[in-house]
Amino acid sequence: MADAPTGLAEQYDDMLQQREASTLGMWTFLATEVLFFGGLFLSYTIYRHAYSDAFAEAGRHVKIVYGTINTALLLTSSLTMSLAIHAAQSGRQRALLGFLAATMFLGCCFLGVKGLEYKSDIDEHLVPGAQFQHGLPAQAQIFWFLYWVTTGVHSLHLLVGIGALGVIAWMARKGKFSAAYHNPVVMSGLYWHFVDVIWVWLYALFYLVNRH
Amino acid sequence: MNFPLFPAQASKVAEQTDYIYWGLLCLSAAVCLIVFVPMVYFLFKYRNGNPADRTPLELPEYKIEVAWTIVPTLIFMCFYVWGSRQYFLIERPPPDAMQINVIGKQWMWKIQHPEGNREINELHVPMGRDVKLMMTSEDVIHSFFLPAFRVKQDVVPGRYTTEWINADKIGTYHLFCSEYCGTSHSLMVGRIIVMSPADYTSWLAKGQPEPSLVQSGESLFRQLGCSGCHMGNSVIRAPPLEGVFGKPVPLNDRTVVQADEGYIRDSILFPAKQIVGGYTNDMPSFTGKVNEEQMLELIAYIKSLETQSPSPEVRP
Amino acid sequence: MKTTMPQTVTPEIPNPPQRLLSYFEDGGQTLGSWLLTTDHKRIGILYLYSILVFFVIAAIAAAMMRMELLTPAGDMVTSQTYNKLFTMHGTLMVWFFLIPSIPSVLGNFLVPLMLGARDLAFPKLNLLSWYLFNLGGLLALYAVAFGGVDTGWTFYEPYSSAFSNSHVVTMIAGVFVAGFSSILTGLNFIVSIHKLRAPGLTWFKLPLFLWSTYATSIILVLATPVLAMTLVLVATEKIWGLGIFDPKLGGDPVLFQHLFWFYSHPAVYVMILPGMGVISELITCFSRKPIFGYHFVAFSSVAIALIGFFVWGHHMFVSSQSVYAGLVFSLLSYLVAVPSAIKVFNWTMTLYRGRIHFDTPMLYALAFIGLFMVGGLTGLFLAALGFDVHVHGTYFVVAHFHYIMVGGMVTAFLGGLHYWWPKITGRLYPENLGRLAALIIFIGFNVTFLPQFVVGYLGMPRRYHAYAPEFQIFNVMSSAGASILGIGYLLPLIYLIWSLKNGKKAPPNPWKATGLEWQTPSPPPKQNFAQTPIVTQKPYQYSPEIEEELIHG
Fold first, then answer.
1. Can you tell me the mean pLDDT for B122-149?
2. Residue B287: its chain A contacts at CB < 8 A?
3. C377 — contact with chain B (CB < 8 Å)?
4. CA distance C527 to C531
5. For residues A116, A122, A126 and A127, what is the CA-based torsion angle, rounded to 10 degrees?
6. Most B CBs within 10 Å: which of A48, A53, A142, as the mutation test of the B interface?
7. CB atoms A39 and C222 under 8 Å
8. Range scoring the smallest mean pLDDT among B57-61, B71-75, B310-314
9. I need a labelling partner for C332 at 20 to 30 A (CA). Which of B69, C204, C303, C477 fits?
10. Distance (Å) from the C-alpha of residue C503 to the closest C-alpha of chain A?
11. What is the mean predicted confidence (pLDDT) over B222-232?
12. How far C541 CA lies from chain B's nearest CA (Å)?
């Protein structure tokens, strides 16, 4: 493999094959992720159907301001991520680094806002258990249980995404990418957009459905 | 050690289920013959070293494949229909069956007869009558398995499930818990005792005088304060319960539910879940205040209100 | 070698300058060279070691259970211990032996070889999945060693979260981590089969083992995450003390069963499809015939994988799900049996006018067909709604799935292991001992599990520590059979290890087989092929008219 610096692994014949393989790999992984969240969405749907009143009442305590800010943050981050990919494609290293940093920064902001929201949820006794806010029906705890688990798992995904972008940014700094080879940027972008799309679903299910 | 090959058969349903068993055994035997006889023949005839004609044949492969796809499918469908009909028979209790309550808990079966007789790990039933078991669990999932009747149903906490039998042989048969439920799962066993109707009546009489389920339910109804709101002359407006059981109830969200055991149970434990049309939810939850046995007594009482006049003072 | 029909045209290399180093030699024999390898062949070997450890531990648990069940009274171990034993047996066998057995060991070794590729698409990911597998396994072993788990491998709610006082969370963590290993392996196979096929190797020239591996991988990738999330919910519920399956909050424990079986039923196909793929390879090679109905055998694997996603509810016919749901699931369960039947018919038809060699792998293949038939036919019993009500949760079910998983998958695994042993190790195993072991296993297996059908039909529930006395005779038979089976499994373990040093050296293609994996030296070089092969023919171009001598030890 004489042209090793381009990042061609030995099991592939050429860059095209390698790129196609990693793209297919990423989409397969995202299919896995869809089903991973699928279990949660299914549970949510079933209980929402069974206990619609309790869920509506529970949902009125969700902090829509935080949720909306976070939605805006993540959507913007998807934009900067796309710009990063575009920069990578056209071989603009400084722009790539800048957009990656912006994306990571927006991701961190999201986690910060989420932390604030969690704190106010805790203050309002919205954690299921003995301390759970009185006056809410029993099944409201199911809503809140799902809220904590789903948003928690999503935040974990975002954290992984920020870490992955960190690695990509580090590689970019070392000049690993070029207009010819930038597939890892595209792959991490796919993952980032996926995490964003999952959030849009969460936003709809936990924040919006209960508003009339 | 004896060598039984067939379980005792104590009901018509058991007999019918066994026909399916025999049918499937015949099917299996036929399939085995169809596959193994040619296979053994091929293995013998075409073994290496044995002279045989091995020139490849042009077989109508596609037709053969379609044939052995469609034929098994059709045969399977017959068994599907047969099995499903039996399932509907097993799963749907006859409407006028007498009801006995079963409560599973780690690791025993508690039985309530309507007359108030209670037993543990033993179930006495009269022969020749449809008996419906109304079952729930206090803790984990159990399963009420009566092999001699070929029936089984999971007993699930938080909901009522039913199972029914009509015994046609007097005798004592096994009762097993067949859903793993913890340490002493294998000791959660008992007996079902099928008696002649006369013997059953005298067995019931021996257990008296215990208050009937309806009587126990009625006194609970007063103790817990239900009567304060749900009786005709109360100050707080709550839906009347007379005649409610078994009828459709229109709810606030414009849906309609059937007032069955599960509905009454949920209304007591989770009053906010389904609110009767035209009412607001002012009822406290009785979660933790009513155990499963009391719940069944309350339900028996509310059911009894269906047939009597508005005055609850008169017992049926 | 006499002339066989060449499947591949390897570009002529005039006198290769030197012999290529095998994957054993290339890279050295240091511990680091194994633990940090990204060579799919070495990773396959690593998996073999790992699953062997879990198999032995889980088998010991089974042996103790069979000893306990010799007498009706629960007199050898306590109920608590017995419950932990069957949980240990189930979890370890399912997640740490059966699911990785053929896919991770033989699949890892063979997929790139059969594809004519140099490695899997993502070699580092492959190594990572081995580490995840072991991490999961260690967590599971930790749970077993420091107190055990008593929920059964199914972790049914609400017992697992609210009532069991055992190491449920640790065990769940172990299964969760191992699940990611499955996902990554499946992902690797899917991408490799799509993208790394040698020139000329079109989809319909793929060996059937790859078709079944592909179908298996789809299941691994799409079903495992649902299990992972379900287990997260159970563990959260256990730690938190409440959750969405808790009836006290209005939660539904039956929902757990839906989610669990949505994974675990397809997982059953993970535990049989690869076995079917192996059998297709063995039957063709040892009857020297192309497979009958290649397309139907190939598509039946995919059909099983797809329909298999929609039959989970047949585990729940008495769980209080709606009777109409029961109807649908029963129908689909019958339909999923059709592709399996197609496979059996095609295998049988392949024997017709073949030239049948009764070498050890073939004996395992024939045993597979027999045992799988029994397992499949009793599956029809269980799919019949009215009859399932009686035998659900009894030993009938235990016997049924052991026929599929042990009679099917383990038999196929052993058959495959013997068949590819010369390729993997470069040594031949002793043929006569191999045949003897196959026979002992077949007899032992049937003596163990046939009586369980009867005792299940009589009504003996599974997971019973103590049982009614009239069931004893069958349990004694079963335990006796288990000891025969134990000897049967011990034999290959001994002579295969023996053959590593003492077996005859294997030629590149001892079975005169047509697959690409046989067109390279045994054991293969690190790069698999001296030059990328070019495929020009369909698989299994055997000719039964030609008399050939197979080489065995």
1. 95
2. 138
3. yes
4. 9
5. 120
6. A53
7. no
8. B310-314
9. C204
10. 32
11. 82
12. 12
pLDDT for position C416: 97
List all residues 6 or more positions away from B80 whose beta carbon is below 8 Å from its beta carbon. Answer: C330, C331, C334, C383, C384
Q: Which residue of C has its CA nearest to B176?
A: C461
- DSSP for B22-87, written as a single string: HHHHHHHHHHHHHHHHHHHHHHHHTBTTS----PPP---HHHHHHHHHHHHHHHHHHHHHHHHHHH
- Do A142 and C123 lie within an 8 Å CB cutoff? no
Put simply, whether C337 touches B (Cβ < 8 Å) is yes
Chain A positions in Cβ-Cβ contact with residue C233 (cut-off 8 Å): 39-40, 43, 149
CA C298 distance to own-chain centroid? 18
Rg (CA), chain A: 20
CA distances from C41 to C47, C107, C124, C183, C532 (A): 10, 9, 13, 19, 17
Q: Mind listing the pLDDT tens digit for each residue in A164-174?
A: 999 999 999 99
Determine phi and psi for B250, rounding to 5 degrees.
-75, 135
Query: What residue in A sits closest to C184 (Cα-Cα)?
Result: A29
Neighbours of C83 (CB within 10 A): 26
Q: How far apart are CA C90 and CA C405, in angstroms?
A: 12
Q: Does C241 touch chain A (CB under 8 A)?
A: yes
- Please give the pLDDT value at position A6: 63
Instruction: Kindly state the percentage of chain C with pLDDT values over 90.
Output: 86
Contact list in B for residue A52 (CB cut-off 8 A) is 253
Pick from A25, A46, A145: CB nearest C255: A46
Q: Which of A18-22, B235-239, C235-239 has the lowest mean pLDDT?
A: B235-239
Count interface pairs A-B at CB distance under 8 A. 18
Spatial contact of A188 and A164, defined as CB atoms under 8 Å apart: yes
CA distance B93 to chain C (A): 13
How far apart CA B142 and CA C179 sit, in angstroms, is: 29
